[in-house]
Design a protein that fits this description.
With about 350 residues, this protein is an alpha/beta fold. It contains 11 helices and 14 strands.
Length: about 350
């Protein structure tokens, strides 16, 4: 396990729930982080809000609803692949492995990985990492379900949390980065992030990476424009969060959700569009924002990949592709990567 000293020196507070479950929270002020980043990004000529701010309690709950929508193929397709490889995955795991999960969320998919690990080892160390407090509830559920599980959670952003991964050096680890979360990075940033993960790994460690594949535009756009309007609520909740945490005056009814597929960039683009000319005040920062009618706030890019791109990314960042699994429709891929021996 990671020692307390290593974590405490990194400005984290430890909360012990049971002898088998503890989690660490960053001492950094989340409100000041949102205030600092939103102040910068919303004052640009092309306004944007980083997608990591989607996941307050309301946003996390809405995203769980999105994952169950018929139009949102990603979650059920990835789950089907995980189900299908439960018996095959252990063939690539020689000895005991700790499971590290980046962006663990509700840990729905985690159970499939735990099932695979439980077939070859008696005890499992699990390290969920998530920016949202949803980690507490999901980890509690797993703790109650699996007697062989020891959980150390980290509630923080990906980048600082990678420092934790470096300290898991007492046994091999499999790092799971599922849900096509890598697609939220710009291409160069995605390569940098994969390289950062690479630096946290040791010989015989593995990375299980989920990636959404390029497909028919109608399928892609329906996934981000569902008929129930849940994705729209999820997107607009960003403004509600800023209102609540930064004492801003966004009138939610004067903005609308927009999502479209950019074929040239191979990405879904999500925006909030101003319906009218308007001015918004952010009390905590003391400045105002002016919006023209139809002006956009960019909230998320979600890049889609093809198989050659995935292989190229792996090669550029020092990985070997051990195995690639896709569904029958080639809508989604899971790539199992190992460190390339130099």
């Amino acid at each position: 396990m990671i020692t307390n000293t290593k974590l405490e020196t990194q400005n984290y507070d430890k909360v012990t729930v049971t002898p088998r479950f503890c989690y660490f929270t960053s001492k950094a002020d989340n409100q000041s982080t949102l205030e600092r980043e939103a102040s910068y990004s919303l004052s640009r000529k092309r306004k944007f809000i980083h997608p990591k701010f989607f996941y307050d309690k309301t946003g996390s709950d809405l995203f769980e609803q999105i994952c169950l929508l018929p139009e949102y193929y990603l979650t059920r397709t990835e789950m089907k692949i995980l189900h299908d490889i439960t018996n095959e995955l252990p063939n690539y795991l020689k000895g005991n492995y700790a499971l590290v999960e980046l962006g663990s969320g509700s840990s729905t998919k985690t159970r499939k990985l735990l099932e695979a690990l439980s077939s070859i080892q008696n005890q499992i160390e699990y390290y969920p990492i998530d920016i949202s407090d949803i980690l507490k509830d999901s980890s509690t559920s797993l703790h109650d379900e699996y007697d062989n599980l020891k959980i150390t959670g980290i509630i923080d952003q990906y980048e600082p949390a990678l420092e934790f991964i470096k300290h898991i050096d007492h046994q091999k680890k499999i790092i799971a980065f599922l849900g096509s979360s890598l697609g939220n990075f710009e291409p160069e940033q995605a390569l940098e992030f994969l390289s950062s993960i690479h630096k946290c790994m040791q010989k015989n460690d593995l990375l299980l990476l989920g990636l959404d594949l390029v497909k028919d535009t109608k399928i892609l756009e329906k996934a981000y424009n569902d008929s129930k309007g849940i994705t729209a609520k999820f997107n607009l909740n960003l403004l509600s969060r800023i209102n609540k945490e930064l004492q801003a005056s966004f009138d939610i009814k004067k903005f609308e959700h927009l999502a479209k597929f950019n074929k040239n960039q191979s990405r879904i683009e999500m925006y909030l569009r101003s319906k009218v000319n308007q001015e918004v005040y952010i009390t905590s920062t003391g400045f105002s924002l002016k919006f023209k009618k139809d002006e956009l706030i960019s909230t998320e890019y979600s890049y889609k990949y093809d198989i050659p791109q995935i292989k190229e990314m792996a090669q550029k960042t020092g990985f070997n592709l051990q195995k690639m699994w896709t569904d029958k429709k080639n809508h989604f891929a899971l790539a199992l990567l190992s460190l390339r021996e130099l």
